[in-house]
UniProtKB/TrEMBL annotation:
Belongs to the AAMDC family. Pfam families: DUF498 (PF04430). Keywords: Cytoplasm. SUPFAM superfamilies: MTH938-like (SSF64076). GO terms for cellular component: cytoplasm. CDD domains: Mth938. The keyword Cytoplasm applies. This is Mth938 domain-containing protein. It comes from the Eukaryota. The keyword Endoplasmic reticulum does not apply. GO terms for biological process: positive regulation of fat cell differentiation. InterPro entries: AAMDC, MTH938-like_sf, NDUFAF3/AAMDC.
Length: 122
């Protein structure tokens, strides 16, 4: 199953191929997507993306996981989260969200089993 293309991105809005929903923040993986609700794990801009935030996507068998830190890169990504993914043999890309979406879509086009977590505002 292929990872869905991120069809559009603007401040506070993301659309993913195969979903009729508009996401503010989202998680994507081969075969699916859903809203990323920070309240599930108590995530805040600092300390940022926790291993619990990426666990669901990592468990989908991804080779690479792209993290979008927001339009102004306000969302932090601590080393513990990167290490958590690397220990599972997953390549990690941490980028500003517009760049992260471009990278993610390029990896999808190359046939990589890619997943991502994206913050679409600050």
């Amino acid at each position: 199953m292929a990872s869905p293309i991120i069809a559009s991105l603007s401040w506070g809005q993301m659309k993913v191929q195969g979903s009729n929903l508009t996401y503010k923040d989202c998680k994507v993986w081969p075969g699916g997507s859903r809203a990323w609700d920070w309240r599930e794990t108590g995530t805040e801009h600092s300390p940022g993306v926790q291993p619990a935030d990426v666990k669901e996507v990592a468990e989908k068998g991804v080779q690479t996981l792209v993290i979008g830190r927001g339009m102004s890169e306000a969302l932090k990504v601590p080393p513990s989260t990167v290490e958590y993914l690397q220990k599972q043999g997953i390549n990690v890309r941490v980028l500003q969200t517009e760049q992260a979406v471009k990278e993610y879509n390029a990896l999808v086009a190359q046939g990589v089993r890619v997943g991502g977590v994206f913050h679409s505002t600050c």
